[in-house]
Amino acid sequence: MNILSRHLPILEWGRTYDRTVLSNDLMAAVIVTIMLIPQSLAYALLAGLPPVVGLYASILPLVFYAIFGTSRTLAVGPVAVVSLMTASAAGAVADQGTAQYLEAAITLAALSGIMLAILGLLRAGFLANLLSHPVISGFITASGILIATSQLKHILGVQAGGDNWPDMLASLASAIVDTNPWTLAVGIPATLFLFWVRKGAKPALQVIGLPKRAAEMTAKAGPVAAVALTILAVLAFDLDGRGVNLVGAIPQGLPPFAVPSTDLSLIEKLWVPALLISIIGFVESVSVAQTLAAKRRQRITPDQELIGLGAANIASAFSGGYPVTGGFARSAVNFDAGAQTPAAGAYTAIGIALATLFLTPLLFSLPVATLAATIIVAVLSLVDLKTPGRLWRYSKADFAAHAATIGITLWAGVELGVIAGVAVGLLLYLWRASRPHAAIVGRVPETEHFRNVDRHRVFTVPHVLSIRIDESLTYLNARWLEEYVLERVAERPKLRHVILMCSAVNEIDASGLESLEAINHRLADGNIGLHLSEVKGPVTDRLKRTHFLDDLHGRIYLSQDRAFVELAKDDGLDTAPIDDLARGMI
Amino acid sequence: MNILSRHLPILEWGRTYDRTVLSNDLMAAVIVTIMLIPQSLAYALLAGLPPVVGLYASILPLVFYAIFGTSRTLAVGPVAVVSLMTASAAGAVADQGTAQYLEAAITLAALSGIMLAILGLLRAGFLANLLSHPVISGFITASGILIATSQLKHILGVQAGGDNWPDMLASLASAIVDTNPWTLAVGIPATLFLFWVRKGAKPALQVIGLPKRAAEMTAKAGPVAAVALTILAVLAFDLDGRGVNLVGAIPQGLPPFAVPSTDLSLIEKLWVPALLISIIGFVESVSVAQTLAAKRRQRITPDQELIGLGAANIASAFSGGYPVTGGFARSAVNFDAGAQTPAAGAYTAIGIALATLFLTPLLFSLPVATLAATIIVAVLSLVDLKTPGRLWRYSKADFAAHAATIGITLWAGVELGVIAGVAVGLLLYLWRASRPHAAIVGRVPETEHFRNVDRHRVFTVPHVLSIRIDESLTYLNARWLEEYVLERVAERPKLRHVILMCSAVNEIDASGLESLEAINHRLADGNIGLHLSEVKGPVTDRLKRTHFLDDLHGRIYLSQDRAFVELAKDDGLDTAPIDDLARGMI
To answer: Which PROSITE patterns would you find in this protein's record (chains A, B) (predicted)?
Structure first.
């Protein structure tokens, strides 16, 4: 594959594009468009931006992802968690509703797009590995709780604030006396309706005679129905005059040409959140894309995905949008509706553009409470209460990373939450890596196998110590290795030979080598030999480029068994206890 | 061992203290005291502090290390690299010679002491592992170059500055025209004499009849001879009047009671350098202590060493000193001179205290150039020019970390240098950990061994794929595992069974488990079985606590051979090619 077609996947699928594919893609695009309109408005609200910004972020980014992305079915656009992170980052530099706030959001999209594209060109997708599953799921659960809580004020029709969960709850509690009953009368039914749509709509539609697939697709239009019904309710009962907060005028027309800020002091404040938005967005998007690709035995290329998402975010910035990424729900709908190529995303973009041109006047009377209900129902499905217990039972370290992420995200916000999760995960990993597993092994009678002396009945001799090291020797455990070996040696006064069984040693870095050299010198001082057995080919090749093998006060054996049998005979006694030895070795 | 004697090693060795040990310790203390006086003055100069501060830092810290430390022979006090780091950190908040500068140095000692003690109580000594050997040696080489360069101005008798190497060289180059010839006439011979003392003094003293050991010990007093000779030269030739910079009046008397600053804005600026000083100091000290302990088959406890060094630094802060740690040269002298317990350190402290009380007037006429010569000769031995080439040949990744540390330390200073070294080392480690080694294996004919198909002539069948994974399954490589397995499967349309050979898998964390589950589901969709072989006991125990084994579309086999033999028979054909199979399996 040449460089052009690696970075432009459209050249691949574009060649075989025919009428069948076109009609499948068009069908999926119609369904996703219907789903995406209320979602875009709602997530813009969550990000603290004018609703139309959500629509802008759902037009050009989709086209650019279609050109550069490798997933055939990923649907890109505003998503809940990234919207929350945008609100947090932009809120730190400007007040909601100001031009500076909008500029910060646009700049975040630009920075995030540039970072993603650079990471992609550097093939640095592996950085996303720093987010372990427990950290990601903890972060998503905590974000879901934060988002749902932040939307309650719209359901109640009150003013409330707070950047973290305790503040939000306190602010809500003190504002609850001002609850607007008319807003509540819209918000509660809308929320209940949307919850029902998620679970109950499909079976109900099948009962009234729709085929299964049609029922499934129709149910996805639930939010649109909620939008339409609540608009009608506003008009019918004059809710505008009764204090119900409405979306109001949305500017009509195609996205404007916007320019991100080049103010260095603003960029200095936004680059860390932009990096976190990039990584969280990338991880979410890649997980979705991989899951869907695997179902059709297709493949995605993570490094090229970085470039696709980077292009989408840069496009978002220049068309007045805010950070976007691949969303789970809408991608699944796109997939189920039969989308076959990224062109479906481009058609969706046309659908949203048409809505921006012609539909926005109809949304004037849409209650904000309806959008809040959409968000609450969407994010509560992200809250996963089973994972903590499962992790606790399986791995305390993973539980610690998960719990730290949830706790710090709720109490100190999304940015510190992610950073703390990564830091805790990494520290626990490094802690374990710094004290790896090793075992003293002996020979299983009547075999050539060597097993842990603590777990099996095996044969050993007092003047030979066989240590199996179950990890590569790197700088993280080099110090441990010295301590471990020398302590074991100190316990055994009769010792003449130490064999390090290296069957699980895939690498010895420079620090590991220095530790081996130190062990060799110290053992040599006590006239004890150091031998290595079962060293892998690539490891031996590298050791041969050093002085270590010349200085080694001992030998390298191909097999542990050979080493043990040969060294066991050298017990320093004149009369070798051949019989004993032979008995153990049969 | 109870908690008291674990944290107070003095209780251990104090019980067996007798007259022989006392006389050995006293002898060592005398020699170390003679060596330490010029060193303390010189390193205080390097740290930009009044010379007496170096003496203060060599009294109480030694006593507190003797109580809390675990090394029998470590000699604590001011050292070159930590002095340089102190100068860099204190210089960032105040000008040299001001009370604020001294306060910053004292506060650094207090912060560093508290951090070391806390790390010790948390048993977080493993954090020092983050500094790999290539990073440490790169840092020490670059520090040696920086320190030697910073002292050249004292040899030349000029004013020069600069925080990094290019600035230092530029500043020296423009100041060289002001060179004071009388200072040079002291500095050059002092430097040459001290270089000669290092190499040539011992043989020369033996030639004139001293026994080997006495010659060795007398040679260590070389710096004292340089001090005495240059003081005499100053007095004889009235060098004071000729512009030679002298140490001048040193306050007489015991260390004052000092109080570190509790100003939060100062602490905010100093905590990062204090942490770096703590870690670098700890690593240097522990390496020295371990090397010496091993020579006498003694042991040190790294976590208790943290507490010992923490106590020493807190004591330094409260007695007007600056950050201290265990030094290599003086510990080796202490060891060679026969020190047997930490009490030798306490006797050294008494020696230095006596010097502070009575000797300081004699040092009035000591040229600063002599101290600079002491420093230059001491640190140039730290510069290691062989390591870069050795690392380049052995491991490009280790070379990269080494080179980055040297380059960034020289060009951006000691703090950024250490941070960059740790970051580069960690990123390279994580990068490798995220794409571990794995191999497709086949059966070596006439054995039960399975080896890499690319390296050996082995037997395989097209409907069974055996993959040996040479690493624990953790979140860093979970994504890689999914990609690797699914790609290999996609290449093999006839496949019916995948066996993951887990002989090198020491751990499966929650992310690794999720990836195994995902692989299992995707293979099951394609009607391919997933089997594990040679799973270690502890790993199996943990897997049993999950649903994974119930959901597994396959089996766990104790041995890879058993798995292969059994699954190879299930090729989905009515007539099994038993003959072929049998041939490969003989």
So the answer is: STAS
The distance from CA B406 to its chain's CA centroid, rounded to whole angstroms, is 15
Do the beta carbons of residue A465 and residue A488 sit within 8 Å?
yes
Residue ending a domain, among B426, B448, B480, is: B426
- Please say whether the beta carbons of A537 and A507 come within 8 A: no
B570 pLDDT tier (thresholds 50, 70, 90) = confident
Domain annotation covers residue A13: no
DSSP tally for chain B: helices H, then strands E:
26, 8
When CB atoms are compared, the residue of B128, B131, B393 closest to A545 is: B393
Which residues partner with B531 through β-bridges? Answer: B499
CA angle A284, A29, A254 (to 5 degrees): 90
Instruction: For residue B432, tell me if it sits in a domain.
Output: no
Q: In what order do the strands lie in the sheet with B556-557?
A: B450-452, B438-443, B464-469, B497-501, B529-533, B556-557
Could you tell me if B160 and B194 lie in one domain?
yes
> Residue B474 and residue A429: Cβ atoms within 8 Å?
yes
In single-letter form, the type of residue at position B552 comes to L
Same domain? For A447 and A378 the reply is: no
Q: List the single residue in A with minimal CA-CA distance to B136.
A: A511
Chain A and chain B share a number of CB contacts under 8 A equal to 142
Do B469 and B384 belong together in one domain? no
The interaxial angle of helices B60-68 and B343-358, nearest 10 deg, is 170
Q: Are residues B464 and B404 in the same domain?
A: no
| Contact between chains at B126 and A434 (C-beta distance less than 8 A) | yes
Which of A471, A479, A537 lies nearest to residue B455, judging by beta carbons? A537
Residue B493, chain A, CB below 8 Å: the answer is no
The CATH number for A488's domain is 3.30.750.24
Residues within 8 A of B (CB atoms), A 56-95 only: none
Q: Check if the beta carbon of residue B365 is closer than 8 Å to that of residue B246.
A: yes
Q: Taking the mean position of all CA atoms in its chain, how far away is CA B522?
A: 46
Instruction: With respect to residue A12, please indicate whether it lies within any of the assigned structural domains.
Output: no
Last residue of a domain, which of B403, B426, B449?
B426
Q: Are A395 and A460 within one domain? A: no
Hey, is A461 helix, strand or coil? strand
Report the gap between the CA of A93 and the closest CA in chain B (Å).
23
| Residues B124 and B168 grouped into a single domain | yes
Q: Could you report the per-residue pLDDT of A217-232, keeping only the tens digit for each? A: 788 778 888 989 999 9
CA distance B186 to chain A (A): 41
Q: By the CB < 8 Å criterion, does A510 face chain B?
A: yes
CB contact B397 to A (< 8 Å): yes
Residues of B numbered 419-478 whose beta carbons fall under 8 angstroms of chain A's beta carbons: which are they?
425, 429-432, 434-437, 455, 470-472, 474-478
Which domain covers residue A461, as residue numbers?
438-585
pLDDT of B573 over the 60 cut? no
Do B479 and B361 share a structural domain? Answer: no
Work out the minimum CA distance from B434 to partner chain A, whole angstroms: 7
Q: Give the tens place of pLDDT for each residue, B330-353.
A: 888 888 888 888 889 999 999 999
Residue B499, strand partner residues: B466, B531
Least confident of A457-466, A516-525, B286-295, B541-550: B286-295
How far away is chain B from the Cα of A509, in angstroms, using its nearest Cα?
Answer: 7
Looking at the 3D structure of chain A, how many domains does it have? 2
* Secondary structure percentages of chain B, helix, strand, coil, to 5: 65, 5, 30
Domain co-membership, B411 together with B524: no
Q: B250-283, pLDDT tens digit by residue?
A: 888 888 888 888 888 899 899 999 999 999 899 8
pLDDT confidence band for A287 (50 / 70 / 90): confident
- Answer whether residue A404 shows pLDDT above 70: yes
pLDDT digits (tens, 9 = 90+) for B203-254: 888 888 888 878 877 887 788 889 899 999 999 988 888 888 888 888 888 8
pLDDT tens by residue, A495-507? 999 999 998 888 8
